[in-house]
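Researcher: Here's the sequence for the chain we discussed earlier.
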Amino acid sequence: MSSSQSGATYESAGVDLEASQRVKERIKEVAKKTYGPNVLGGVGGFGAMYRVGGYKDPVLVSSTDPVGTKLMVAVMANNFDQIGADLVNACVNDLIVIGADPLFFLDYVATSVMDPNIVETVVIGIANACQEVGCALIGGETSEMPGVFSDDNFDLSGFVVGAVEAEQMLTPMENIKEGDTLIGIPSNGLHTNGYSLVRHVFQLHANRTILSEYVQELGETLGEALLRPHPSYYSILKPVFQMSKGIAHITGGGLYENMPRMLPSGLAVRFDASLWESPPVFQLIQKQGGIDIEEMYRVYNMGLGMVVVCEPEETNTILGSVKGSLVTGEVVTDTGSGRVLIENM
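Model: Thanks. This is the structure I predict for it:
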């Protein structure tokens, strides 16, 4: 088979190997800042290596998440500064419900055309978020897939592995009982859920310029409110892991879908929505779309990022330890009317 300079190349098929290699070299330098002595082999090899130390009987806990269609809003706003933090924190918060500490993180970026500047911005955000929770950005993958993704769209996913002492794992199914207290930890907005509804309500596909418009009731632009990063709750909740019977991360599906995931059979939870404030962006979405309040609570966190279940005797200690936390309800007997009851919506 003869070769020819005028023949087809990978670049003519839409894949720029040189741009991909430049990205990988940049990522190596960013990732190294997150390494500790337990990282034996990080970004650049075929497989990353991490030595688990400091535990007598460690249980490994893993979680994976994408940013979802919030990424499309970031593309529309041409703002990628916080998307990396969204990715890390959405994953790390899922470890919290077990009482686990994050150990290492991997990312996956798939694009139509590799833009080294955008990828580097995203990975810097990932690395910064990892550093904040003591987690190593140990590896990942970048992939150019022209034909799968079009225009400037791309996808972003993350994978985290954590550890917890076997005897210290949170086991809500075994411990939660009637009369336990629900303590809510406030959210700062949508986090990473419900953006398909947002794009539909505001018709962002046809009018992305609305993202840069100042909205009086928000006190900022719509884009700023929608792209506020999903926060990590690890640092503020770690001190109360052992006072907690269970912790729920309120993601897609809101309280209705996430609370039952830790409830023993025969029990339900009753919330009083008048006890906490929802960020104003939720009211704006509801008004703009004429959305029923019940639907809002089935899609969004509506102001609660995490919910801790504890013995009533531990309530004041947790409230004093976790800034901004507040009592939001209690565990009750399941009467068949629903496992999650929300009053005063």
